[in-house]
Design brief:
By secondary structure, this protein is mainly alpha-helical. The chain has one domain. α5 runs antiparallel to α6. The longest helix has 26 residues. The protein is globular, with a radius of gyration of 21 Å.
Length: 300
């Protein structure tokens, strides 16, 4: 077993040294452009900016590494983002911060070092604020957020059925109650959603697990790099990505974290660069209905 791990390690190291080591900045900006093009939430104005500017940079390396290009792109994206300010997903804000970080880092001689540092800090702060919000929200710690999500969000229906025994009939009834409340003109309209005991337990477990893993990421990425916790900071982030996004298929956030994780890796973490790049390439796989596939296998 040890020899297999050693061979795998050396294979990844050889892959990194041959294909990645001398192209880190180029790969980072290309992955960032692809993330914006494929996964970022767009307004009509922002869509026009992206269609016109992103493909040009993907096709021409000189444009992709141009300081003026990134400055223009970041400013136009900020303007185009304004109509989405109150409705955008959380990771859209982080994407915009990341684009600005790229634009600013290219004005420094050691562009990649500056970008790598900003990536680590942005990841740390993102998860720090996320953890703080959850700790300050009694409803989240009680498991209410995940329970409500299981019962009303169609993206989680298969997971809820597989793990918590939420039957198709219960899902249909809960969704009908929820939609009636949303559509009602009576602001005091209420309804009782049906759940199972397993759903209550799993919801509470997922609440505490989320606080734990996100807090671990925040601490690991914000502590000085010389500390032991920071040295192994990629472990909790990879765990978070692999346990979160196959269930909550927010591909934009997964892609962004893969890009930023790739960028923040130091020379001592070069194997993890290969891992982050692999996760980035495999992100479309996250959209596969794993829970439905598993249930079909169980039934078969």
């Amino acid at each position: 077993m040890k020899s297999v791990i050693n061979r795998l390690y050396h294979s990844l190291e050889e892959l990194h040294n041959k294909y990645l080591r001398d192209r880190l900045l180029e790969l980072t900006v290309m992955m960032s452009l692809i993330t914006v093009l494929l996964f970022m939430q767009h307004s009509r104005l922002l869509m026009g900016v992206i269609i016109l500017l992103i493909p040009v940079a993907i096709l021409f390396k000189e444009v992709a590494l141009s300081r003026l290009y990134w400055l223009l792109l970041s400013l136009l994206m900020a303007i185009g983002f304004l109509p989405l300010y109150f409705t955008a997903d959380n990771h859209t804000f982080l994407t915009l911060y990341w684009i600005f970080a790229i634009a600013l880092s290219l004005w420094f001689t050691s562009s990649y070092s500056v970008l790598s540092y900003n990536s680590r800090i942005l990841i740390g702060l993102c998860f720090l604020f996320a953890t703080f919000w959850k700790l300050m929200s009694p409803e989240f710690l009680a498991g209410d957020f995940f329970l409500f999500t299981f019962l009303t969000d169609s993206r989680f229906f298969d997971f809820a059925e597989l793990t918590a025994g939420i039957s198709p009939e219960m899902k249909s009834e809960n969704l009908s109650i929820f939609e009636n409340i949303i559509e009602s003109t009576n602001r005091t309209e209420s309804g009782l959603l049906e759940a199972t005991g397993a759903a209550l337990l799993i919801s509470k477990f997922m609440a505490y697990w989320t606080v734990f893993i996100e807090g671990w990421i925040a601490i690991a990425f914000l502590l000085p790099k010389k500390t032991v916790v920071s040295k192994y900071r990629d472990i909790p982030l990879i765990i978070f990505m692999l346990t979160t996004y196959p269930i909550a298929t927010v591909r934009g956030f997964a892609a962004l974290l893969a890009v930023m994780g790739f960028a923040q890796c130091g020379e001592e973490n070069k194997i993890m660069r290969v891992v982050y790049l692999s996760v980035f390439v495999l992100i479309p796989v996250f959209s596969l209905p794993f829970e439905r596939i598993l249930m079909n296998l169980i039934v078969w």
